Amino acid sequence: MLQHLFKRKPLSLVHEEMKGENRLRRVLGPWSLTSLGIGCVIGAGIFVITGYAAHYKAGPALVISFVMAGMACIFSALCYAEFASMAPVAGSAYTYAYITLGEMFAWIIGWDLILEYSVASATVAHGWSKYFQNFIGIFGLGVPTPVSNAPFEFDPTKGGFIATGTWFDLPALVIVALLTVVLVIGIRESTRFNNTMVAIKLAIVLLVIGVGVFFIKVANWQPFAPFGWAGLSLFGKPLWGQTGADGAPVGMMAGAAMIFFAYIGFDSVSTHAEEARNPRRDVPFGIITSLLVCTVLYIVVTLVLTGMVPYDQIDVNAPIAAAFERVGLTKARFVISLGAVAGITSVMLVLMLSQPRVLLAMARDGLLPESFFGAIHPRFRTPWKSTILTGILVGLLASFIPLGILAELVNIGTLLAFVIVCLAVLIMRYIHPSAERPFRCPWVPVIPILGVLLCLTLMLSLPWGNWLRLFAWMGAGMFIYFLYGRHHSVMARQRLADQAANAGCEPMSP
User: Fold this and answer.
1) Is residue 21's pLDDT more than 60?
2) Class of domain 2-460
């Protein structure tokens, strides 16, 4: 039985599937892919999570947290780029795991990616709602209080949950519904919309840097690391550094684990490999270029934000807009809030665009019902059923679950995906040393090993509650796999067909 669970999908079969009719349109060039990466990375991370992490986790030392998290992402990105050039199909890390580690690990990483993209989308929708309400507040408008926020929040200073007195977050629900419609219509329309949003938010980010640098007070960077330089724990037990009121680690490393969410997006480029015109060249270009651009912008914006406002006075809901208003630039609040709304919209778009592609890849392999998750719209050529389901799930999460819980939960899922991809590169070099690699990760095995170690370190810096939620999610996933996926997978059907052929009889259905 074990050999069936770890049965690997042949790379030749992946290439053969690319020739089928039930595939997505190849309409994306290198800059469209880069724009998708930037569109997904620059958003809630820079406009929302930065303030939360500086206020509660790292202080001004958050800039070093971004460097640390960026290094982990760069090592992982190089591994992603190698795989994306070898297997340019929908599915991202799920497909890579199937080729190298076998079916059960592929299911684990696919189930993990569902967690990553769903929860990340909900987190971003929550941030969008806050900036949208900040924006309309400029005109004296507001959302009715009962539908302005999630019904509860987690307060790190008290170490517990507090009621907000609201029912659900209506703006988050509405934007998710609107984007779901856009995504069903088609990939070309989605990327055009994304390109416009990316241009707007890059202009705003450069404006923040260009204007905010003149309001930096060096005194605001003192103390530079008020929570310390550590923040490492082992399954919730502090190993190195301080802890907050809730018992969770704080410090530069803990800040890196928190803001790692801000980098989620470059890996989404690989999920669109099947829609790239020249995936072997353009996907690695899009992954690496988008990550490098965003890393530089994150570091500079963090320096500006913590230099403008003392870390313990940063507004955690709309930190950049509030910082400019604090120094008297009230008119800038309008521009920044508008840019944040546009920027965060593009992040949601790309994240919600990516998840159905993972579901599509899993359905093609029989691990999920293909009639639903593998359905391609005859006119729009998009996985429309799974896109609508994604919209429903994201809308519910964004409406009822608070920002802090969502951000930390998505981080641990993403880090796990990166660890598996880095390991998969090492395994692939061993089992398929002569396979064509249009892009080769440099300095193997050093780069993949460093990627594994850094990502594991950041995982260990997350609170124990995130590990519990991850184990619960994975437990539910394994139940579905053994109940359905293991018996209906393409590899299982092939195994039964081979057994029937050897026995000289007709194959039976699994």
Assistant:
1) no
2) mainly alpha
